[in-house]
């Protein structure tokens, strides 16, 4: 009886300790406030971003494919991003598209990681929480390589990128 209680307590304790965190992998344009994000749905691009593989998942030629960039320019710092932690959310694409279609074309005022002052987004990266998201010319509107120099305040960030 005592050994069964001890095993149950150990299992419960281990279950509580096993928490997923991927703050350091989230893109600079991701919204603050999430310790773990698997995918972002981007209504303006009608596409997904896979945080773990750092790739966009877009529908092209009749199939969902991974790309390093979106097929058309989208200012990722100012559009809505929907956090989705489902496995392979594109398999339920009509659900997400229909649910979030009203966000298309509407700017987001959510503070992004680049502009956050929270230390959790910047530690362990030599002050550069988003250095691996260098400008590709349009995905981040030429911003986002400022080496962790974002200055947020009262919901309006003023990031200093190169």
Characterise this structure.
- By secondary structure, this protein is α+β, with helices and mostly antiparallel strands.
- It has a domain at 21-108.
- 15% of the residues lie in helices and 14% in strands.
- The chain has two helices and five strands.
- The chain has helices at residues 2-17, 93-100, and strands at 39-42, 47-50, 55-60, 63-67, 82-84.
- It has a five-stranded antiparallel beta sheet, with no helix packed on it.
- The radius of gyration is 18 Å and the shape is globular.
- Residues 4-15 and 125-162 have low confidence and may be disordered.
Topology of this protein?
Blueprint: H1 2-17, E1 39-42, E2 47-50, E3 55-60, E4 63-67, E5 82-84, H2 93-100
Antiparallel strand pairs: 1-2, 1-5, 2-3, 3-4
In terms of DSSP E residues, the strand content is: 5-15%
Calculate the mean pLDDT score and round it: 75
The value of Rg in angstroms is 18 Å
For the biggest β-sheet, the strand order reads 4-3-2-1-5
What would you call the shape? globular
> Helix proportion of residues, in percent?
10-25%
> Major beta sheet, specifics?
5 strands, antiparallel
- Count up the helices: 2
Secondary-structure element order, as H and E? HEEEEEH
Number of strands: 5
**What is the SS-derived class?**
alpha+beta
Uncertain residue ranges: 4-15, 125-162
CA-to-CA gap between the ends?
64 Å
